[in-house]
Amino acid sequence: MKRFIAVVILILSILSFGAVRIGITQIVDHPALNAVFDGIVKVLEDAGFKVGQDVLIDRQNAQGSMQNAVAIAKKFATEKVDIVVAIATPSAQACVQAITDRPVIFSAVTDPVGAGLIKQLGKNTTNVVGVSDMVPVATQLRLIRRIFPNAKKVGVIFNPGEANSVTLNNIAKSAAPSLEMTIVEIPGTSPSEMITALNSIGPSVDVLYIGTDNTAASSIEAIGNAALRLKKPIVAADIDIARGGGVVGFGFNYFQVGVETGQLLVELLKGAKPTDLESHVVGPDSLVLYINLDIAKQLGVEIPADLVARADVVVRDGQEVAK
Amino acid sequence: MIPVIEQGLLLALAAMGVYISFRLVDLPDLTPDGSYVLGGAVAVVLLHSGYGWAFSTLMAALAAGTAGAVVAFITTRFKINSLLASIMVMTALYSLSIRIMNAPNLPVPRFDTGKITSYEQIVGKTPLDDLLGDVGQTTFEGSGMRAVKIPFTNTADGHDLILIAVVVSFVALLVWFFLRTEFGTMLRGYGRNRFAVRVLGVNPDLFAYTGLILCNVFAGLSGALFSMYSGFADVNMGIGTVVICLASVILGEIIFGRFELMYGVIFPIVGALVYQFLLTFAMKYGYRIGFKPSDMKLLTALFVVAVIAARRFKKSEVTV
User: Fold this and answer.
1) B37, B94, B129, B132, best to mutate vs chain A, most A CBs in 10 Å
2) B195: domain range?
3) Which of A292, A296, B41, B133 is the most exposed place for a label (fewest CB within 10 A)?
């Protein structure tokens, strides 16, 4: 028996010899953030790295607690983890503070500069590199202007407690005047607050806009139904949110954020240094235009034909057709 | 190992506050969930404004103490249960903290960044540009940052540990000396028997104020130091503070039993350390034996119940 155990340990140690240890930490269990993880794993395997053999992944979840996020970051710092991937703002902030001698990749952070992770987008001189999930807010407002030429008030549904959403809301506010729009804030720190705010403020706006808000994402079915009752169309920056009840969505899905994060990780695994790589916003190739003609018809919204022709995903008669 | 003790000691500060409100003066106070965040928010904002870390921390503790005074005011003036009063203040502090930071999350500045950011620079081109036209010049003004010095080095050599340990022992000794004074003795008496203290001819409201202010000063201090230690303040970082601290206090009481060392000021410190070790242990080995991340809160709750049950079994004198 002892010999057997010794052999097993020997085999295991040979197997894990040379394997790179990757610590992946995320702030909370959330479909969007889990999709980022899935995207990362997909890219790793496509690039020929076998998870569990060539790379060992230590996946940790802070369950929404900042203290846990810090504890995980410190755990990665003291254990021999070779590369750290941190998903979402607080987890990334904790890792960047705790780990300075090994590469840290951040992902799904909308404003990495404002969050204090890097000095600027592009190349930096630190151990930190990553992917921002900033969405093209101004382009989305233009899209709203194009589809709803008479829209004056755009209601932004967001959680004032989420850093990402507040950033997007601020950008929307600075971009709106040039398009002769005003931004009306529809805030909620929980799904129920959000629905209440939507029902009370919603009737006074022309169009609803939802960024990459986690709270809105987790209650999008309810928000979609409420918007339908109010007869207000939703334009979303996240394709998964758009699928939950939006008329138009222009943005990415979080799997794609994970794919671009994974590409950075693969570069590092192949020997690149964090200083060689550029921190960037989820690229133009990942942006998808989603149009739901069924809901548009229900609300009496006419979508310009050239937009429909350009759409990557169109929902018509209950059928979702991807180009 | 060292980081676990560091985090445990940071938690111990808040736990000391909770011990004072829940145990010593017997005025259950839920404000620490909010004043912990307030402490972090005030400290980081002051760092952004260029003040030193010591001054920022002190101001953070004072701001949090003010929140405690508000709770005491509502409780004593309107004769409302302290739990209810503290829930209201705690809720208000959520909004207030966002106001103070002007954002839900603020990092401790690590480098200098500019104020104005151009939108095009960040987002770049999109596939719809030809249809919708150029987005034009959109700039938005961030707050901008100047790098600051904080006392934490985040190295494993124990530098941070010594610093935190010094702060915690200093605070604990201060509380101990305070509780030894005549006023401190009366304060403890107030917690045991409200009516007996009245006989001494001191306005009992004074004790409510002292207890609740101290409770929140410690929560704010804990939040401020945690923010500098972790590199950011976040409006959601206070969720569950009271529950965790209470669990720590109870743990400490179990470990020491009736032996009230330093009037029990030692309870929350030991309890918080043990709690942090249990948490780390669960995080490290929990997944390997089939727990999911989402099970951890259940485990925490079950653990606290088990501990209380164990104490009932021992028929100890103290009640929860």
Assistant:
1) B132
2) 2-109+151-314
3) B133
